[in-house]
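Project standup — Tuesday

K.O.: blocked on the structure for the chain from last sprint. Re-posting the sequence here as requested.
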Amino acid sequence: MDLPENIKKKLENLPIDKHPGSICIANYKGGVGKTTVTTLLGYYLANKGQKVLLIDIDPQCSLSLAAGVDPAKVDKTDFTIYHLVTPNKWAKISKVKFEQYIDDVPDIHSPATLKMIKGSFNTDELDKIIIREITQKPNAADTLYYYCKNMLNAFSDFDYVLIDCPPNKMYLTQAMLRASSYFITVTIPDKISVYGMPRLLKWVKEIPKHEKPRLLGCVLNAVNRAGGYEYGTVNQQQATTELYKSIRDQLEPIERNLIESKPVLAHLPRLDVISRFLSQGADKSAWYELKYSGSDQQSVSEVMMNFINRMEKRMKEYAKI
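H.V.: unblocked you, prediction finished:
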């Protein structure tokens, strides 16, 4: 990679490996539940005893709001993702105090080991600034990637760093995907949403091989389980089949071997309790309701723990390769 000498000198002593627990939750289709999955995954990993950092890079700030951040206060601080990745930080990475951007999750019921970096409603403007930087400086896209990778490494005290991505291909999304070790796609069980995923995978396939994140699998969100124990109705079972057919050609051989038999990590049910949990802001009393099913179906807690077990097993399988 042909970088200017001054940038090379600044980067040569920075970490090379990616953060081993960095995971982007992404899909170019909006409204499929990326924030739902990121929030629940963060809560359950932390409740299991893991140290988890949530990063909100979506201009809608849905993750920040779901975690209990007051909408009126989202941009009333200089310590959001906007300020953390603004271009004037890139060449000064050694001077950035990353720990200053880490906040407690406002929700009074959240596990103590769950932290976050707040989003900003100005993140869409940030992408315009990044575009200007990249237009003026041909190597800026690579510099942003190196910055993001080493930013994630700066959070090495965390077992997991979960990044909630917007449904677009903005430069920050691209850089964070490229900088992460893994990614998870989220969709809802309909053909339009399922067929939106190959666009994401096609772009990931274009990332240089040694920098490419590995696909852990997909989460089917908002599943109607009336027709079965975990997997739902026949149409949703068909969606699982169509899902794999739609993405198979975009997978690397290693990914295909690992996820061919089970491309779906979890079937997350459509339940009112999940909606309440996400909408309760800083007082998520519904967090305790998630472990009760009230029927012969799996509870949300059971679904999420199975999800985590499958995800961690797949991460270990990748680590052996």
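K.O.: great, moving the ticket to review. Residues 228-234 have pLDDT under 50 and may be disordered. Residues 58 and 166 are 5 Å apart (CA to CA).
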